[in-house]
Task: inverse folding
């Protein structure tokens, strides 16, 4: 048997790039590599941080001397208006941002990819109906909607995740749908259909694996959007008041007048944290789209 | 397997599509033919003549507008759901694009075992494995154990087409519909695939509906040839009699060009004009000429002074004058077919 | 009188896996008014060789050895600025699938006009327009249809438009790469005979690159057969492929198998053997004859020594140990 080049090159876009190729291409792409590094730093901090740096969560400042203090040897990122250690708040707060981001994204991707798959595969009236629903959700003004829903159903991380997820799926749905529409015309699908396979087998065994890489690329972008959305909500005071998140930190900092007091240690870390996490995922997502570019034939 | 003498009987097949501007695209306009057990029938015509649509209709990938397609005693157009799926075991298809028809993410083994899984056939996992290896061996993919583990992108075009063939024979079908199975392969690889197809017919008794634009290939591979023009069969007969004595002017033209005998482009010594095998181009299936579809381009129509019957009446397939009484196989759809020699 | 001389040309591609020599020390020439076919299958280097003449090779390809001389001018090593005026006016190229390269939102006559005015900047508008109509007429397209859009034409007619466009600036040499794939047989015959007519009318030299021997038979006086980057046989088309009255005299087993793969409707109704295997990987070093692992007549010496072109008959050369006396 042989490792052959094609005798008649197919010249077709193969979405079938293997996992290993994906990671190595990602690393070789400058943006992808930057994204991976940035993200790794952030994730390590929020993951291991509280373990490595166990600051006392109940240490509120007792005297006015320890409130809103600049960074010092004792408090690396200084203190809040209540005397809390900013560094600890920072390390713990990142978790909520990530949690909401991931949960919301999962909802968005499952809904979006699922709808895109069904819509693209069946076409016809199902596609028309689903696409009109997608258009409707697409044009809904997200933030006002979230505000209303938060007011109605309360402010907790579950609600926030749900709401962000339910408003982020249209983008994924459209992308997956157009890829599925082109895949279904391939001789492969005609052949499997002619064998007598039923629709669910075709969709899950043949179409889904071939759009999976595209879903991953989109996932990264949706994730960065979800993190930003959560931060925005928390900043506006619509986040879970009990859980500290970076957005909540910014909210508190704003309330305490940190900006005018020049207490930069209070709002710069959470701000940078949000930027870093969002940027990391966005860079990876962008890079993956480039890696999966149709002009890159999977020529091995 | 059933025991009817014909594995396929197509009667009055019509496939009309609505066009973009409301006109009717007559892709297939009344086609009838049979394929006997163990026979290779070639459908020959240019792209767009409807031969691929006929194949798709037989496979029920395209729903015909009217007509019947009978295999194993059942009319496929009347079947649905489970009954249709059962019937599909009898007819398998091979496509033109060897790479596009295989799932790039499946190994050769997975591609070939899939029909067995879909139809819940082949017995236990071990028995299935044996059937797959046997099918690969039949398709000359050797050694089968090693080739079963590779991915399509590691194979040449010819090898991929063999995988497609293996997956088509694993269920033991009666008929294989092959749509231009070699046109995307290198010239050197074509003979191997064609030989394989004939070999499988000899060993397994499977029939073929072989679709091609290449009359010469149809001639060496097929037992009978049906020439298709604008959605209709204009001539049908054994390969030998069709090539030796074509009765329809279109077949004559195709034969002349395929054999390199046409004198297209040369100056006719008598008229001083440039010789054309056939004037103009094939009209689109949305604007099919009335009467005989071929008459606007037909040299005989011009020679005979444009007889009205060609413009008005659809010619029907009928036996040619010179068919020998015993075989009765050579039919032509023409009001003024070539006279017998 | 030699118009184009390709002398000992090798073309290398730089890939991430190393250097690949797609064309290996190939020589061929085209006389004025002559038409030469380059026959072979995908990967043999024929398209690369064809693209090298108008210097249209990809960025990662270089002409590593040899020279290409067109009408006295040496082409290898010319800069874009120097080569540009020669393209279209001295040598024109019709790509594979060219008929799909027409601008869908521009009328046909405009597109041809553009080709003319880009290269003959000082031409008079009326003269140019008349030339466009003449060109379209010469390829069988009536003046009434000149201002149509590409989608209003069939594939065959669009191909004629491409040919007309390629002749817009009266080149001396036309290189056509698979100009008739994707067309039906009857249209193919029409396009090929059109090329013949234009050749005679304009004293045009033609290089036809194709895997279809029937096309080469129709149009070409001489044929060069390539395999895995080298020339394996070359000579008069009528001799090598035979005619309706003479048998083919192809000497190289690869040429013979190519001929066998095109069934002859006048001959025996027999299916060819075909070739198993595949062409060699050109990024690896090849020892001996490149065709050895697929050749039905392979001998010991074939695995060790690469054959060189030897003359078999006047004007007919082949590179094979079966005919060069090395078999001893």
Result:
């Amino acid at each position: 048997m042989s490792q052959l080049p094609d005798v008649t090159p197919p010249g077709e876009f193969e979405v079938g790039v293997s996992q290993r190729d994906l990671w190595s291409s990602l690393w070789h792409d400058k943006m992808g590599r930057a994204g991976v590094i940035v993200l790794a730093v952030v994730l390590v901090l929020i993951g291991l941080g509280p373990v490595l740096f166990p600051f006392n969560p109940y240490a509120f400042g007792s005297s006015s001397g320890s409130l809103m203090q600049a960074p010092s040897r004792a408090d690396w990122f200084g203190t809040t208006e209540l005397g809390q250690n900013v560094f600890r708040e920072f390390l713990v707060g990142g978790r909520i941002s990530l949690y909401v981001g991931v949960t919301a994204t999962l909802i968005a991707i499952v809904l979006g990819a699922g709808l895109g798959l069904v819509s693209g595969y069946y076409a016809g009236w199902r596609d028309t109906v689903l696409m009109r629903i997608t258009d409707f959700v697409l044009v809904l003004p997200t933030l006002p909607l979230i505000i209303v829903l938060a007011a109605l159903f309360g402010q907790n991380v579950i609600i926030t995740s749900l709401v962000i997820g339910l408003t982020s799926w249209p983008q994924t749905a459209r992308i997956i749908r157009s890829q599925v529409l082109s895949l279904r015309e391939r001789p492969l699908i005609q052949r499997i259909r002619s064998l007598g396979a039923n629709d669910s087998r075709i969709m899950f065994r043949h179409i889904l694996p071939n759009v999976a890489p595209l879903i991953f690329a989109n996932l990264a972008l949706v994730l960065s959007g979800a993190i930003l959305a959560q931060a925005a909500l928390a900043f506006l005071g619509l986040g879970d008041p009990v859980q500290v998140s970076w957005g909540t930190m910014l909210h508190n900092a704003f309330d305490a007048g940190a900006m005018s007091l020049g207490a930069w240690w209070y709002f710069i870390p959470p701000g940078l944290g949000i930027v870093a996490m969002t940027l990391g995922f966005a860079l990876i997502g962008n890079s993956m789209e480039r890696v999966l570019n149709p002009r890159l034939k999977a020529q091995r | 397997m059933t025991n009817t003498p014909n594995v396929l009987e197509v009667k009055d097949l019509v496939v009309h599509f609505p066009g973009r501007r409301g006109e009717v695209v007559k892709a297939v306009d009344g086609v009838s033919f049979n394929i006997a057990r163990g026979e290779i029938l070639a459908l020959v015509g240019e792209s767009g003549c409807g031969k691929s649509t006929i194949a798709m209709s037989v496979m029920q990938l395209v729903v015909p507008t009217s007509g019947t397609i009978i295999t194993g005693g059942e009319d496929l157009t009347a079947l649905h759901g489970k009954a249709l799926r059962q019937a599909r075991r009898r007819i398998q298809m091979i496509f033109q694009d060897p790479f596009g028809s295989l799932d790039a993410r499946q190994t050769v083994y997975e591609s070939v075992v899939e029909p067995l899984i879909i139809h819940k056939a082949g017995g236990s996992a071990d028995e299935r494995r044996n059937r797959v290896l046997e099918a690969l061996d039949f398709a000359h993919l050797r050694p089968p154990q090693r080739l079963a583990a590779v991915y399509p992108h590691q194979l040449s075009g010819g090898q991929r087409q063999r995988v497609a063939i293996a997956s088509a024979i694993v269920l033991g079908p009666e008929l294989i519909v092959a749509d231009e199975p070699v046109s995307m392969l290198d010239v050197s690889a074509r003979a191997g695939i064609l030989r394989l197809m004939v070999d499988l017919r000899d060993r397994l008794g499977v029939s073929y509906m072989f679709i091609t634009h290449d009359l010469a290939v149809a001639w060496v591979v097929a037992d009978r040839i049906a020439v298709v023009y604008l959605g209709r069969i204009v001539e049908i007969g054994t390969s030998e009699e069709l090539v030796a004595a074509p009765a329809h002017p279109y077949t004559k033209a195709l034969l002349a060009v395929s054999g390199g005998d046409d004198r297209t482009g040369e100056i006719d010594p008598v008229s001083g004009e440039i010789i054309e095998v056939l004037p103009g181009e094939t009209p689109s299936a949305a604007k099919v000429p009335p009467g005989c579809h071929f008459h606007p381009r037909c040299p005989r129509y011009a020679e005979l002074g444009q007889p009205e019957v060609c413009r008005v009446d659809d010619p029907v397939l009928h036996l040619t004058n010179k068919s020998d009484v015993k075989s009765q196989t050579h039919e032509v759809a023409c009001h003024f077919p070539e006279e017998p020699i | 009188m030699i118009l184009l001389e390709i002398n000992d040309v090798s073309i290398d591609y730089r890939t991430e896996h190393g250097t690949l020599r797609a064309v290996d020390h190939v020589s061929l020439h085209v006389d004025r008014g002559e038409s030469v076919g380059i026959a072979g299958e995908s990967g043999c280097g024929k398209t690369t060789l064809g693209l090298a003449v108008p210097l249209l090779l990809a960025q990662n390809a270089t002409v590593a050895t040899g020279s290409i001389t067109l009408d006295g001018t040496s082409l290898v090593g010319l800069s874009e600025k120097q080569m540009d005026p020669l393209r279209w006016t001295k040598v024109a190229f019709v790509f594979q699938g060219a008929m799909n390269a027409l601008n869908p939102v521009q009328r046909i006559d405009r597109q041809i006009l553009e080709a003319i005015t880009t290269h003959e900047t000082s031409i008079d508008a009326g003269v140019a327009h008349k030339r466009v109509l003449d060109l379209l007429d010469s390829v069988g397209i009536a003046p009434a249809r000149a201002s149509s859009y590409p989608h209003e034409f069939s594939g065959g007619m669009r191909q004629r438009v491409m040919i007309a466009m390629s002749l817009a600036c009266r080149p001396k040499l036309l290189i056509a790469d698979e100009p008739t794939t994707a067309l039906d047989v009857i249209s193919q015959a029409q396009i090929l005979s059109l090329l013949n007519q234009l050749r005679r009318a304009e004293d045009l030299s033609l290089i036809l690159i194709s895997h279809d021997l029937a096309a080469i038979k129709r149009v070409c006086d001489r044929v060069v057969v390539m395999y895995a980057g080298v020339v394996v046989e070359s000579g008069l088309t009528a001799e090598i492929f035979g005619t309706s009255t003479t048998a083919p005299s192809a000497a190289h087993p690869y040429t013979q198998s190519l001929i066998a793969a095109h069934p002859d409707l006048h001959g025996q109704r027999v299916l060819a053997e075909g070739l198993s295997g595949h062409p060699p990987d050109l990024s690896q070093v090849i020892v001996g004859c490149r065709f050895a692992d697929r050749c039905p007549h392979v001998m010991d010496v074939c695995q060790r020594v690469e054959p060189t072109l030897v003359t078999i008959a006047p004007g007919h050369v082949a590179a094979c140990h079966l005919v060069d006396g090395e078999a001893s």
